[in-house]
Amino acid sequence: MPRKLNDPSPLGAQSGDGSHVSRRLFTLGGLAGLALPLAGCYTVGLPGQPPLPDETFDYDAAYAELPDGEFTWPAINYKAFDRKFLRQVVDFKSREKPGTIIVDPYNNFLYWTLSPKKALRYGIGVGRAGFAWSGEALIRVKREHPIWRPPREMIARKPSLERYWKDGYPAGLKNPLGARAMDLWQGSVDTLYRIHGTNQPSSIGKSVSSGCIRMWQQDVIDLFERVPLRTKVIVLQKDEEDSEA
């Protein structure tokens, strides 16, 4: 049965970039993973994860320049964006098990469910691949500082990218996958669909030309530190997008 999920707040290749998939509900299966107490009595996620945003949350610190191994990700000018795209806990009704990721590509939100009535929401940017998918999968691979290989259809449009097909585009500030990538699989098959960072922070809250589900570097690192492997993910189709309660 179609899932109807409500958020009362305002709505506003090996990389997975540019892959062709169908326009149907993307339903991904899996286990919620390890549990531990969190603020507000939530019991989902990996141990040692960051605190949840609350009314005293310091967004200046959350979106500040971020050292990360050999790289330092630039600060996000978050005040230039609609506040709805900032990381925040929202009212969100869902029948899914806490710890599920639910993506609404049509309103540019990603939700990580905390309870039947609450979720941690992030703003996202969505490429063509993010609107075109069907099937079931799990987060089977989590990659820090991923390399990126352009899909063949992108190389066909821009032949100069062929040099990155074999060894990939190296990790770093210019890498299209950004700081982290979470790869979604169907059984033993890589779907080429990813949740990943972006080197184009202005794309958050927008539909963009390429990519799957892209997040600010600070946000994708935050999500990466919360979700275990085999996390269940659901990507909604147009007639299942959230509506106000």
TrEMBL record:
Keyword ATP-binding: no
Keywords carried by this UniProt record: Cell shape, Cell wall biogenesis/degradation, Glycosyltransferase, Hydrolase, Peptidoglycan synthesis, Transferase
Location of the active site: H196 (proton donor/acceptor), C212 (nucleophile)
Domain L,D-TPase catalytic: 99-236
Domain of life (superkingdom): Bacteria
Membrane-spanning residues: none
Pfam families, A to Z: YkuD (PF03734)
Pathway where it operates: Cell wall biogenesis; peptidoglycan biosynthesis
PANTHER family named among the record's database cross-references: L,D-TRANSPEPTIDASE, L,D-TRANSPEPTIDASE ERFK_SRFK-RELATED
Name the UniProt record assigns to this protein: L,D-transpeptidase
